[in-house]
Amino acid sequence: MRDEIEAEAAAARVKAGAMPLGRRAILAQHPHHQPETMKKSPKPRIHAASRAARWWFYEGYSWFVAAYRTAAAKLRAGDRMVVFRLGASRRRCRLWAGDHIQAFLSHRIAD
User: Fold this and answer.
1) How would you write the pLDDT of the chain (111 residues) with one tens digit per residue?
2) Angstrom distance (rounded) from CA 90 to CA 103
3) What predicted TM-score, i.e. pTM, was given to this entire model?
4) In a domain, 103, yes or no
5) Does any domain span residue 13?
6) In a domain, 37, yes or no
7) Is 12 strand, coil or helix?
């Protein structure tokens, strides 16, 4: 089994035109050397086990943001009965509507 794996790896290296450096070449390198170019791809906003899980998160988060923005707009318009979704930060309400609205919301959530 090991011989098969090594043979497949050797064939893949020959096909790609890449050969291993070897012990001497590796030891001859400076330990702080960095490659001149790197393969870069944009990182995902969330790391997930699968694309489906990532999509599920994006979809749920977009619904959460839409609900938050709707509630914030209602609060700015003067609706004191607005309800923020569970987990939404209400700290910024103080910036939008003043301390009395923040106190009202804190009291309402405690009930």
Assistant:
1) 999 998 998 898 888 888 788 899 889 999 998 888 888 888 877 888 888 888 888 888 888 888 888 888 888 888 878 877 666 665 554 444 455 555 555 555 544
2) 11
3) 0.42
4) yes
5) yes
6) no
7) helix
